[in-house]
Amino acid sequence: SQQGEEDPQALSIQEGENATMNCSYKTSINNLQWYRQNSGRGLVHLILIRSNEREKHSGRLRVTLDTSKKSSSLLITASRAADTASYFCTLSGNTPLVFGKGTRLSVIA
Amino acid sequence: EPEVTQTPSHQVTQMGQEVILRCVPISNHLYFYWYRQILGQKVEFLVSFYNNEISEKSEIFDDQFSVERPDGSNFTLKIRSTKLEDSAMYFCASRGPKGYTFGSGTRLTVV
């Protein structure tokens, strides 16, 4: 199984600011997904980007993928307190999904 | 939007007891998974299930654990003789053409 590594481990920003978190990986992938986990809750799928895509948008989320650098970034624009959560990247090539430690985002009102 | 449903949301059990965690995957999904997350730690893969049999399992998934799809809709995780270190959130997931969907989890507390 393949694992992405999220960076930074923790990020604290003011409401309204943008939040950027990164994911690095080591193997080839078919696609990369970002998930969110609110404290003590389940995992929510945010966005999937395929290996032949470079950028994808969904609402306030923007994901980029650079397969040459084996990295991805997740940008959350105009952050809200409700965005406070842990964010994970996962790689899809072979199942099952493997989760790293994630980035713990705190948005301060 | 179809959901993966897990019951109960919280289970407290005495050490040494058996527990069964239940999941109802999305109806047209064919692949099912159990993950667990010990408080403050990573989400860890336990087992995957396809075509009525285990397709992959992690080192965590030892003889204490078993999975079953008893009736074509439910997908269960049984933990025999629970230990204190089994206390965790347990997540069920199913996978279909559009990817994975996770349930909200069962918080298992072993006392």
Could you explain the architecture of this structure?
The complex is a heterodimer of chains A (109) and B (111). Chain A is built from no helices and ten strands. With 109 residues, chain A is mostly beta strands. In chain A, the strands form two sheets. Chain A has a five-stranded antiparallel beta sheet, with no helix packed on it. A five-stranded mixed beta sheet of chain A has the order 2-10-9-4-5, with no helix packed on it. Chain B is built from no helices and eleven strands. Chain B has strands spanning 5-7, 10-13, 19-24, 31-37, 43-50, 53-57, 65-68, 75-79, 88-96, 99-102, 106-110. Chain B is globular. The A-B interface holds A 1, 33, 35, 37, 40-45, 48, 88, 92, 95-102 and B 31, 33, 35, 42-45, 48, 56, 89, 91, 93, 95, 99-105, 107.
Could you state the order of secondary-structure elements of chain B as H and E?
EEEEEEEEEEE
Mean of pLDDT of chain A: 93
Low-confidence stretches of chain B: none
Which oligomerization state do the chains in this entry correspond to?
heterodimer
Count of DSSP E strands of chain A? 10
| H/I helix tally of chain B | 0
Q: Could you describe the largest sheet of chain B, including whether it forms a barrel?
A: 7 strands, mixed
N- to C-terminal distance of chain A: 38 Å
Determine the fraction of residues in helical runs of chain A and give it as a percent range.
under 10%
Interface with most residues: A-B, 21 and 21 residues
Calculate the mean pLDDT score of chain B and round it. 94
